[in-house]
Design a protein that fits this description.
4 strands, about 45% helix, about 110 residues, alpha+beta, 4 helices, four-stranded mixed sheet, single chain, Glutaredoxin
């Protein structure tokens, strides 16, 4: 009986981790604020309710990311928090990314 209960909880947990939000972190090497932002995102993903959220890290110094370099070279880190169903619902966090601020922004974008 207990085994079924545990499995049921696990299934509910997996279903609740489906988010309609995508995170894109624009960063570069040798950037302390970028490292802090990566830690904030990693800590967020350790929370069961955010486990499995789509996250992409983009190194703006790579040649294929020249457009992002031109846009964000003086602003990294920049974190895009985007509603995958409505790309017009995009929020950006600049410079200092903190876990609690990120949670609040995700909730705002998910509405």
């Amino acid at each position: 009986m207990l085994g079924r209960f545990v499995r049921r909880i696990h299934v509910l947990r997996v279903c609740n981790t489906q988010h309609n939000v995508r995170l894109q972190l624009f960063s570069k090497e040798h950037c302390g604020l970028c490292d802090n932002a990566k830690v904030a995102v990693a800590n967020l993903l350790k929370r069961p309710e955010y486990e499995g959220m789509e996250v992409e890290t983009i190194d703006i110094t790579l040649p294929e990311n020249k457009t992002w370099w031109e846009k964000y070279c003086l602003d990294v880190p920049v974190l895009h928090v985007e509603n995958k169903s409505d790309s017009g619902r995009l929020k950006k966090i600049f410079h200092r990314v903190q876990e609690q601020q990120l949670i609040e922004t995700i909730k705002e974008v998910e509405k």
